[in-house]
Amino acid sequence: MIVERKTRDINRYLSHIPDGQEYYLGVQLLPEHTRRLEALGFSSPAVVGERVLPPARGPASRRNANGFDIVHRDQPMETAYRQISWTYSQWHGKEKVEVTQVTDVPYNRYPRTRVAPYSIEFVLSTAPHGRHCIVTGPFRRVDTATVVATNTANMLVEQLGAFEVLDSSMSPSADIPVRRLNWRLLPAGENPWATAWPALENFIRKGRGKSRQVIAARFETVGEFNPEFIAVGLGGFGDYVVFGFPSKGICVLESCYTNNATYVLSHANWEAISQMTKAQILEASAHEIRLIHDRAWFEAIAEVLSRSNPNAA
User: How far apart are CA 50 and CA 234, in angstroms?
Assistant: First the structure.
């Protein structure tokens, strides 16, 4: 059964599946899906085995790619901080000059609990009859509402216009190599930082108002240490940039949004890390250092990038 609308509970479409049994969600592809697949980042023509974290377009897709907050409006408000770029004038001798700096501005908000992204990927597979299909899962049939599966069904509607409940015969073949399409290396050239900046400006524009200046200041701070390669995230990784420092043995995973965090990864593991899901990367085992975006960030990242690694490849 093809469902072309969102649902509050995936279990209403699972009556034919026994409790505890695995199932998949997906869409059997038609010619009209071609443009949507290309927009998601899949190759053209389609290559079976490719995996993509869908971009954060639509509420379900945003929850899947970026996570979300549970706001506790029944609790007293707390003081939180947001970073802004502040420009002011000051006297340098007899001259009055403009100075721009990043500062933390306090505000009151209800406490909140952060829910990590579900990080469900779309997989290009082949149905038994030979037609290409997008598959996600597996999920397991349970008596109560399955939050992740329900969100995934709604994400399929947002991205491809419909979803279907599929049995285990539609599971991706274990014999087909996995190929994740979540990153794009920018042209290196003789000066990777200079050649990458136009693409980074597109990421900076994702910020709102003065937060764009904060994002630019963070990128420029990392750029001062001359990254040897730069990769931009695609699809659901579209809010991240990787700055590579092989000579230092590290990579810096930087968010394009304020009030987030920077992750320092081992360069030796970069190829493996680039093929991880977003949830796996954000787990503590995948990064060496996590730097919160606060007033201490600029000094902290400078300290990390000033270190040398004589054993780096």
Answer: 13
How far, in Å, CA of 91 to CA of 96, rounded?
A: 4
β 179-180/183-185 pair status: unpaired
- Residue 184: which region, alpha, beta or left (left: phi > 0; alpha: psi -120 to 50)? beta
The pLDDT tens digits for 35-84 are 888 888 888 787 888 888 898 889 999 999 888 999 999 999 998 877 77
d(CA 244, CA 252): 6
* 151-162 confidence digits (pLDDT tens): 999 999 999 999
Mean pLDDT for 203-220 is: 76
> Percent helix, strand, coil in the chain (nearest 5)?
30, 30, 35
Q: Are 259 and 252 in contact (CB under 8 A)?
A: no
Q: At what angle do helices 59-66 and 147-160 cross, to 10 degrees?
A: 120
The token duo for 3 is: 């469902």
Output DSSP code: residue 124: E
Q: Please state, in angstroms and rounded to a whole number, the distance separating the CA atoms of residues 282 and 312.
A: 23
CA-closest candidate to residue 20, choices 139, 122, 161: 139
